Amino acid sequence: MTEPTMLSKEVQILESTTPGATKRPRGGALSLSPWADYALRRAGGVILSVALLVVVTFFMVPLIPGDPAVAVAGADATSEQIEAIRSSLGLNEPLFVQFINYVGGLFTGDLGESFAYSTSVSQIIATKLPFTAELAVLGIILVLLVSVPTGMLVGILTRGGRKKWLDVSFGMLTGFFQAVPQYVVSTILVVVFAIILKVLPAAGAASLSALILPVIGLSIAPICSIARVVRRETSTVLEQDYLRTARGWRLPSLRLYARHALPNLLTTALTLAGLILAGMLGGAIIVENVFNWPGLGREIVTAIVNKDYPVIQGIILVLGFLAIVLNLLVDVILGLIDPRTLGGKSNG
Amino acid sequence: MAETARPRRRFRWTTGLIVGLVMMSVMVLTAILAPIFLSEAAEKLTPQASQGPSAAHWLGTDDFGRDVLARSLVATRLTLLMTAATTAIAVVAGIAIGTAVWLAPRRIRAAVLRVIEAAVAYPSLIFSLLIAAILGQGTWSAVLAISIASIPAFARLTANMAASISQRNYVSTARLLGVSGPHIITRHLLPNMAEPLLVLTATVFATTLIDLSSLSFIGLGVQNPEYDFGRLLNEGLVNIYSQPLQAVMPSIMITITGLGAMLIGDGLAAATDPRGGRKFGSLRKASEVPASMRADAQALVEVDNLTVTTPSGVPLVKGVSLSIHAGEVVGLVGESGSGKSLTAMSIAGLLPEELGVSAKTMRLGELNLLKKNNPRELAISIGLVYQDPGTSFNPALRIGSQLTEVSRVHLGQSRRTAFGRMVKALADIRITQPEKRMKQHPHELSGGMLQRAMIASTLVTDPRLIIADEPTTALDVTVQADVLRQFRTINREMGTAMLFISHDIGVVQALCDKVIVMNGGKILERLTGEELAAGKVKHPYTKALLAATPSIAERKAELVTVTAKDFALDEVFDDDPADGGHITNSPGSKETAQ
Questions:
Q1: Taking CA atoms, what residue in A is nearest to B116?
Q2: What is the pTM of this model?
């Protein structure tokens, strides 16, 4: 079970999930090892998410208002053209058969043929995915490397109402970057670094330096969101009894914070971060368009404008699947950090 | 600190909230006025295309000779309308689904919640692209796309809140009384969720604004000839090399709107947060307290005239003096807020930095506790045991690694050596399967077992003093006895001095050689263990405490309540009995947790 939300803010609103702050009664249904139990429950969630994704993308075409074939072919198409499209979309078959064909195609890696280009959708995805993955992976690494230490440091420095100025300016700065859309930040980056300073390329994926601005543009907002969450969790954890216990052991600061505070604040921070990081896949679509980055994001926008439905379906499936994998990854890490996340309570 | 009244919830106007409201008002005014006065400049095609800034066009003109500034201002109306509509749809649908789920039969509820949960895992922008692909591009399909994509998250948050509220007693009562489902939602669920929902709505407004304009920006939202901030930026980006100014104004406008909504959300959250603005409970004004010279140069621990003050100078501990001899167990009794824990934590050097600590003398052996000491020295000299073993262990770490922390960090023992010693120490206090326990996490052990393990762990450094702060309070009565027995054994066999803090005079009586009664930051009475056992107490407050503490046999009998204000607490008497003071049964007075 993941804790609520897309918004970083709700932890303020809903009860904090910081370990020790509240006791969560949990019981594993089966008396297997906690990991097996956990894996089983998570697998159920993953299967449901994937199923939902498949169903929703399948219904995209039948749900197009009016006759999908006419919509695809355009207003001035001949009736033969419309018929050709109808059969290529399989719209002549009953819905049930269409769905079976669709799912069957997914299992064999067949995502259909693009209308706009005479290539298969899987081929298009295979050429575009590496660019998006490059951007997303570097972005996620940058986000985690910057946001967690920053949030923790600010949380430690401002604990118990100390350094009010830092608290206020941190809140304002991160709030500002959360309120500014990524494409605005990216545009400003282009203006400053590519046009005024002329130190980095404004667009394209020709060189390694072309990666810098897109990755930064993609990462700033998530860095601020996660840093805020980490900061708040840090101040909650620092007030916990177990941290007072650790202080009583007079541990060196680094050991105190890294070993006794970090795992506990990461539990909640990462739960939220999973969703924020998955949201970066959406952010990548925007950022790719600012920087003319030849990834899935640019491709899907072109496909939507061209009504190239097989390509849209394929890209949404891939991005949705990546989001599910990312969430699963976060859950596994959570289980490793804090075994109570696993849920099962063995008799002790 | 003692709080007798519940914290009153008052709406607090913060600077952020005011700034946010001002920003949003300016945007709303612009949205109303700009289209009335500026639509011609914004929309009429003129031959003066792609000009730089001039007196007539402050920010220049676009490719069709339209004024960039006017367009940015006029676009506010469409942007705000779209954002408001999207937010409204998402909020209404989200609340409807989130609350209705709680009235549905259990199976349906579980199924719907799982689907919502699965839907939330997808980035909302990808979801809205899918909907935009179905509906085609345009203003209202963008509104629908973003609002539908925002519903799952909002529904889930509402469902979470509704879940916690519907478990409250008054909702179950209403259900039992047969109140109809919609009535429960409107009468019980919604009013109790109003504040957080309002905060969430402001936040959703901010994120919706970003999502909508992003859709327009990538060309899938608002289409020509209509324009919102996102569309203007899209046009501006094409000319970014020749006319960077064209992108500036829409950027500023969208930033102000988004920031305004965000500040309102933050401000509302802070304003309605009952935990906000909490301060130290203010105590009565400081009165000059003479030093009660009770310190003793022969003692192991000597505290002379200890004062602890808040940052604002309010004294919390007012001139406490005490001494503990080697092998002696000293009890510190008093109700919550009496200053007993502060006194103990001052000796341990673990008070929050912002509290001011001063004393004539405070030492442990030759260690001056008023100075900053070597952490190693402190860690091995003073063993600490806390109130609630359930919260004083770190939930994320194994028991073994916590119990051996001091040995490994300060005694330089290897992991293996420390582990072996601790296993033996646990076996000595008859904890079963000590090796297995060491590898378990705190939530897998009972409170009594954790507490006994904690006490055992303080002994591995052979400390000169053990400070135990209400070590039995969180435990049930039978376990209390075990823990007290353990303390007594330690004191007898190893001769370790102890400072034992409790609000339970009965517990103290069973263990301590000397007992100090505190209230309001001062010492009221000093007794020997025998005096206390014999009931030879002088101060009426102590008498009242004794009367209020039932023996285990009479735990079930009606409790006598003690209120500090019923006594003349300014009277400090170590020798003379005073008259006056009485015991009340007033139901309103209760002891609150610290």
A1: A49
A2: 0.78
